[in-house]
Design a protein that fits this description.
Blueprint: E1 15-23, E2 28-30, E3 32-34, E4 42-45, E5 56-61, E6 67-68, E7 76-80, E8 84-89, E9 95-100, E10 116-121, E11 131-133, E12 138-140, E13 143-149, E14 158-164, E15 167-173, E16 176-182
Antiparallel strand pairs: 1-2, 1-5, 3-4, 4-9, 5-8, 6-7, 7-14, 8-14, 9-13, 10-11, 10-14, 12-13, 15-16
Length: 184
């Protein structure tokens, strides 16, 4: 028997636990998952099949609520206080990852989809060494999604969502100030 998610090792992150994976002995081929708990906001999917038997990716969160401004870095206007921890077995490969904002107390404007950022790190503070992932970012009906996400660099990775600070270019012409916002 292999333990894929150990409550004692993941106690602080034992909330809204879900997972995807493949187990040939039980004919399990779970390619998309979201915790069934009320208020769960993360869905992870694997469009293509798993390469091998016993490839698994599980995740849970720290149950924090709300968001904080600039706490990680001045590059981010806001980030979710809720942090997710992963546990992997085998080589599950890259996935798609979505956040449902209807269940997230987060004050982000939907028109700024280019500024949504997925932060991935080997620790849960994201202050140094965090990978900034923006590939395939979409925002549709309150759900922001990222594609081609690698959560398997280490057996345990941490992730959260942030709103990157837009680059503001101020142009003054004839006493009129125009702000042009573009992504860093």
């Amino acid at each position: 028997t292999t333990v894929l998610w150990d409550h004692s090792a993941n106690g602080s992150y034992h909330n809204d636990v879900a997972g995807i994976g493949r187990d040939d002995a039980t004919a399990l081929d779970q390619r998309m998952s979201k915790s069934g708990n009320n208020g769960s906001i993360v869905t992870i999917g694997k469009g293509a099949g798993f390469a091998a038997d016993k490839d698994f990716l599980l995740w849970g969160n720290n149950s924090a609520s709300g968001s904080s401004p600039y706490a990680i870095s001045s590059d981010y206007v806001e980030y979710a206080n809720k942090v997710w921890k992963t546990s992997t077995s085998g080589a599950p490969g890259n996935v798609s990852l979505s956040f449902d904002f209807s269940n997230l107390d987060f004050d982000l404007p939907s028109g700024m989809v280019a500024n949504f950022t997925l932060l991935i790190d080997t620790d849960d503070d994201f202050t140094t060494g965090a990978l900034v992932h923006t590939t395939g970012t979409t925002f549709d009906n309150g759900v922001v999604s990222f594609s081609n996400v690698d959560l398997t660099t280490n057996t345990n990775m941490f992730f959260t969502i942030a709103m990157s600070k837009p680059y503001v270019n101020k142009v003054i012409t004839n006493r009129r100030i125009t702000y042009r916002v573009r992504r860093n």
